[in-house]
Automatic annotation (TrEMBL):
Binds 1 divalent metal cation per subunit. Its cofactor is Mg(2+); a divalent metal cation. It is found in: Cytoplasm. Transmembrane segments: none annotated. A divalent metal cation binds at residues 8-9, 39, 95. GO terms for molecular function: 3'-nucleotidase activity; 5'-nucleotidase activity; exopolyphosphatase activity; metal ion binding; nucleotide binding. SUPFAM superfamilies: SurE-like. Gene3D superfamilies: Survival protein SurE-like phosphatase/nucleotidase (3.40.1210.10). It catalyses: a ribonucleoside 5'-phosphate + H2O = a ribonucleoside + phosphate. InterPro entries: SurE, SurE-like_Pase/nucleotidase, SurE-like_sf. This is 5'-nucleotidase SurE. Belongs to the SurE nucleotidase family. NCBIfam families: PRK00346.1-4, PRK13933.1, surE.
Protein backbone atom coordinates (compact mmCIF):
# COMPACT_ATOMS: atom_id res chain seq x y z
CA UNK A 1 0.00 0.00 0.00
CA UNK A 2 1.02 3.60 -0.46
CA UNK A 3 0.77 5.37 2.88
CA UNK A 4 0.96 9.08 3.67
CA UNK A 5 2.49 9.62 7.12
CA UNK A 6 1.98 12.84 9.05
CA UNK A 7 1.77 14.09 12.64
CA UNK A 8 1.43 17.22 14.77
CA UNK A 9 4.72 16.99 16.69
CA UNK A 10 6.83 17.95 13.69
CA UNK A 11 8.69 16.09 10.98
CA UNK A 12 11.69 15.46 13.24
CA UNK A 13 9.71 14.00 16.18
CA UNK A 14 10.74 10.57 17.45
CA UNK A 15 7.21 9.20 17.12
CA UNK A 16 6.99 9.71 13.37
CA UNK A 17 10.54 8.40 12.89
CA UNK A 18 9.84 5.14 14.73
CA UNK A 19 6.50 4.71 12.95
CA UNK A 20 8.06 5.18 9.53
CA UNK A 21 10.97 2.89 10.35
CA UNK A 22 8.48 0.09 10.96
CA UNK A 23 6.04 0.78 8.14
CA UNK A 24 8.53 1.31 5.33
CA UNK A 25 9.53 -2.35 5.70
CA UNK A 26 6.12 -3.33 4.37
CA UNK A 27 4.67 -0.34 2.51
CA UNK A 28 5.54 2.49 0.15
CA UNK A 29 5.42 5.57 2.35
CA UNK A 30 5.77 9.32 1.93
CA UNK A 31 6.18 11.59 4.95
CA UNK A 32 4.61 15.04 4.92
CA UNK A 33 4.60 16.67 8.35
CA UNK A 34 4.78 20.10 10.00
CA UNK A 35 8.14 21.79 10.13
CA UNK A 36 7.79 22.22 13.90
CA UNK A 37 5.55 21.45 16.87
CA UNK A 38 1.84 21.93 16.08
CA UNK A 39 0.09 20.16 18.96
CA UNK A 40 -3.47 21.22 19.87
CA UNK A 41 -4.00 23.01 16.56
CA UNK A 42 -7.12 20.91 16.01
CA UNK A 43 -8.42 21.23 12.43
CA UNK A 44 -7.07 24.69 11.67
CA UNK A 45 -5.80 25.40 8.16
CA UNK A 46 -3.60 28.15 6.78
CA UNK A 47 -5.52 30.54 4.53
CA UNK A 48 -3.74 33.91 4.73
CA UNK A 49 -0.11 32.82 4.36
CA UNK A 50 1.59 30.69 1.70
CA UNK A 51 2.75 27.22 2.67
CA UNK A 52 6.47 26.54 2.49
CA UNK A 53 7.34 22.95 1.59
CA UNK A 54 10.88 21.58 1.79
CA UNK A 55 12.19 18.10 1.15
CA UNK A 56 14.12 16.96 4.23
CA UNK A 57 16.38 14.03 4.99
CA UNK A 58 15.48 11.93 8.01
CA UNK A 59 18.49 9.86 9.14
CA UNK A 60 17.86 6.15 9.13
CA UNK A 61 14.83 6.33 6.83
CA UNK A 62 14.81 5.55 3.12
CA UNK A 63 11.41 7.16 2.43
CA UNK A 64 11.00 10.66 1.05
CA UNK A 65 10.05 13.27 3.63
CA UNK A 66 8.76 16.83 3.36
CA UNK A 67 8.30 19.55 5.94
CA UNK A 68 5.37 21.98 5.69
CA UNK A 69 5.18 25.37 7.38
CA UNK A 70 1.49 24.88 8.20
CA UNK A 71 -0.74 22.73 10.36
CA UNK A 72 -1.30 18.94 10.32
CA UNK A 73 -4.47 19.40 8.25
CA UNK A 74 -2.46 21.56 5.83
CA UNK A 75 0.05 18.73 5.48
CA UNK A 76 -2.60 16.29 4.32
CA UNK A 77 -4.21 18.80 1.96
CA UNK A 78 -0.96 19.84 0.26
CA UNK A 79 0.31 16.26 0.12
CA UNK A 80 -2.80 14.96 -1.62
CA UNK A 81 -3.00 17.94 -3.97
CA UNK A 82 0.66 18.44 -4.89
CA UNK A 83 3.11 15.87 -3.52
CA UNK A 84 1.71 12.33 -3.70
CA UNK A 85 -0.02 10.94 -6.80
CA UNK A 86 -2.03 8.28 -4.98
CA UNK A 87 -2.63 7.56 -1.30
CA UNK A 88 -4.30 4.38 -0.05
CA UNK A 89 -4.34 5.36 3.61
CA UNK A 90 -3.15 8.18 5.87
CA UNK A 91 -1.43 7.40 9.18
CA UNK A 92 -1.06 10.27 11.67
CA UNK A 93 1.35 9.88 14.61
CA UNK A 94 2.82 8.46 16.69
CA UNK A 95 1.67 11.36 18.84
CA UNK A 96 3.58 12.28 21.98
CA UNK A 97 0.64 12.16 24.40
CA UNK A 98 -2.64 10.27 24.42
CA UNK A 99 -5.59 11.40 22.34
CA UNK A 100 -8.38 10.06 24.51
CA UNK A 101 -11.95 11.15 25.00
CA UNK A 102 -12.79 14.76 24.26
CA UNK A 103 -9.11 15.59 23.72
CA UNK A 104 -9.62 14.42 20.14
CA UNK A 105 -11.39 17.75 19.49
CA UNK A 106 -8.14 19.62 20.17
CA UNK A 107 -5.77 17.13 18.59
CA UNK A 108 -3.80 18.03 15.49
CA UNK A 109 -2.95 14.35 15.15
CA UNK A 110 -6.59 13.28 14.93
CA UNK A 111 -7.52 16.27 12.78
CA UNK A 112 -4.90 15.34 10.18
CA UNK A 113 -6.55 11.93 9.97
CA UNK A 114 -10.00 13.51 9.74
CA UNK A 115 -8.75 15.74 6.91
CA UNK A 116 -7.75 12.58 5.05
CA UNK A 117 -11.32 11.31 5.24
CA UNK A 118 -12.55 14.65 3.84
CA UNK A 119 -10.31 13.77 0.89
CA UNK A 120 -11.98 10.33 0.71
CA UNK A 121 -8.96 8.50 2.15
CA UNK A 122 -9.28 6.15 5.14
CA UNK A 123 -7.04 7.08 8.06
CA UNK A 124 -5.56 5.97 11.35
CA UNK A 125 -4.40 8.26 14.17
CA UNK A 126 -2.07 6.77 16.79
CA UNK A 127 -0.81 8.06 20.13
CA UNK A 128 0.98 6.97 23.27
CA UNK A 129 1.54 8.72 26.59
CA UNK A 130 3.86 11.72 26.69
CA UNK A 131 6.30 10.17 29.19
CA UNK A 132 6.54 6.90 27.20
CA UNK A 133 9.83 5.08 26.83
CA UNK A 134 11.24 4.20 23.42
CA UNK A 135 9.74 0.71 23.50
CA UNK A 136 6.24 2.23 23.77
CA UNK A 137 6.65 3.89 20.38
CA UNK A 138 8.02 0.67 18.94
CA UNK A 139 5.01 -1.23 20.33
CA UNK A 140 2.66 1.37 18.89
CA UNK A 141 4.30 1.14 15.46
CA UNK A 142 3.91 -2.65 15.42
CA UNK A 143 0.27 -2.43 16.46
CA UNK A 144 -0.38 0.13 13.74
CA UNK A 145 1.11 -2.21 11.16
CA UNK A 146 -1.30 -4.94 12.25
CA UNK A 147 -4.26 -2.55 12.36
CA UNK A 148 -3.47 -1.37 8.81
CA UNK A 149 -3.59 -4.97 7.61
CA UNK A 150 -6.89 -5.68 9.36
CA UNK A 151 -8.43 -2.40 8.20
CA UNK A 152 -7.38 -2.99 4.61
CA UNK A 153 -8.61 -6.59 4.61
CA UNK A 154 -11.99 -5.53 5.96
CA UNK A 155 -12.37 -2.52 3.68
CA UNK A 156 -12.07 0.42 6.08
CA UNK A 157 -14.40 3.07 4.66
CA UNK A 158 -12.84 6.25 3.32
CA UNK A 159 -14.84 8.45 5.72
CA UNK A 160 -13.69 6.69 8.90
CA UNK A 161 -10.74 7.41 11.21
CA UNK A 162 -9.51 4.70 13.56
CA UNK A 163 -8.19 6.48 16.65
CA UNK A 164 -5.58 4.25 18.32
CA UNK A 165 -3.98 4.72 21.74
CA UNK A 166 -1.20 2.49 23.06
CA UNK A 167 -0.30 2.29 26.77
CA UNK A 168 3.33 3.09 27.71
CA UNK A 169 4.14 -0.39 28.97
CA UNK A 170 6.27 -3.27 27.74
CA UNK A 171 4.79 -5.49 25.04
CA UNK A 172 4.48 -8.48 27.36
CA UNK A 173 2.28 -6.43 29.69
CA UNK A 174 -0.20 -5.27 27.04
CA UNK A 175 -3.41 -7.25 27.65
CA UNK A 176 -4.77 -6.98 24.13
CA UNK A 177 -6.84 -4.63 21.98
CA UNK A 178 -10.27 -3.17 22.71
CA UNK A 179 -12.59 -1.43 20.27
CA UNK A 180 -14.51 1.11 22.33
CA UNK A 181 -16.18 4.50 22.50
CA UNK A 182 -14.44 7.67 23.62
CA UNK A 183 -14.48 8.66 27.26
CA UNK A 184 -14.48 12.04 28.95
CA UNK A 185 -11.44 14.18 29.63
CA UNK A 186 -11.81 17.44 31.54
CA UNK A 187 -9.34 20.30 31.82
CA UNK A 188 -9.57 22.75 34.70
CA UNK A 189 -7.87 25.55 32.80
CA UNK A 190 -6.80 28.78 34.36
CA UNK A 191 -4.50 31.62 33.36
CA UNK A 192 -1.59 32.91 35.40
CA UNK A 193 -0.41 36.48 34.97
CA UNK A 194 3.23 36.84 33.95
CA UNK A 195 4.68 40.07 35.29
CA UNK A 196 8.07 39.66 33.61
CA UNK A 197 6.87 41.59 30.54
CA UNK A 198 6.67 45.26 31.49
CA UNK A 199 5.14 46.42 28.20
CA UNK A 200 2.26 43.98 27.81
CA UNK A 201 -0.31 42.23 29.95
CA UNK A 202 0.66 38.56 29.62
CA UNK A 203 -1.20 35.46 30.80
CA UNK A 204 0.08 31.90 30.58
CA UNK A 205 -2.17 28.86 30.40
CA UNK A 206 -2.01 26.41 33.30
CA UNK A 207 -4.35 23.63 34.29
CA UNK A 208 -5.00 20.13 35.51
CA UNK A 209 -6.14 17.27 33.28
CA UNK A 210 -8.77 14.98 34.76
CA UNK A 211 -9.67 11.72 33.05
CA UNK A 212 -12.95 10.00 33.93
CA UNK A 213 -12.52 6.23 33.65
CA UNK A 214 -16.07 5.23 32.72
CA UNK A 215 -16.32 1.56 31.84
CA UNK A 216 -16.22 0.56 28.17
CA UNK A 217 -14.37 3.76 27.16
CA UNK A 218 -10.91 4.38 25.74
CA UNK A 219 -9.65 6.01 28.94
CA UNK A 220 -10.92 3.04 30.98
CA UNK A 221 -9.25 0.39 28.84
CA UNK A 222 -5.97 2.26 28.35
CA UNK A 223 -5.69 2.46 32.14
CA UNK A 224 -6.18 -1.33 32.28
CA UNK A 225 -3.30 -1.96 29.87
CA UNK A 226 -5.16 -2.38 26.57
CA UNK A 227 -4.53 -0.83 23.18
CA UNK A 228 -7.72 1.05 22.28
CA UNK A 229 -9.30 1.58 18.87
CA UNK A 230 -12.21 3.97 18.36
CA UNK A 231 -13.82 4.56 14.96
CA UNK A 232 -14.48 8.27 14.40
CA UNK A 233 -16.53 10.21 11.87
CA UNK A 234 -16.61 13.92 11.12
CA UNK A 235 -20.42 14.14 11.29
CA UNK A 236 -20.99 15.69 14.73
CA UNK A 237 -24.79 15.65 14.46
CA UNK A 238 -26.50 14.58 17.69
CA UNK A 239 -29.04 12.24 16.13
CA UNK A 240 -30.46 11.41 19.56
CA UNK A 241 -32.13 14.82 19.88
CA UNK A 242 -32.44 15.81 16.22
CA UNK A 243 -36.20 15.25 16.07
CA UNK A 244 -36.73 16.87 19.47
CA UNK A 245 -34.96 20.06 18.44
CA UNK A 246 -36.98 20.12 15.22
CA UNK A 247 -40.15 20.23 17.32
CA UNK A 248 -38.80 23.25 19.22
CA UNK A 249 -38.83 25.29 16.03
Amino acid sequence: MRLLITNDDGVHAKGIHILCKELEKYHDIVIVAPSDQRSATSHSITIREPLIVNEVELPGLKSKAYSVSGTPADCVRIAVDQIVDKVDMVISGINIGYNLGTDILYSGTVSAAVEATLCDIPAIAVSTEWHAELYSYENAAKYVRKIIEVADTNGLQDDIVLNVNVPPIEKKDIKGLKVCRIGKVQHSHYYVKDDSDKENVVYRLEGVRKVEHDEETDSYYIDKGYVTVTPLHYDLTNFGILNEVEVWF
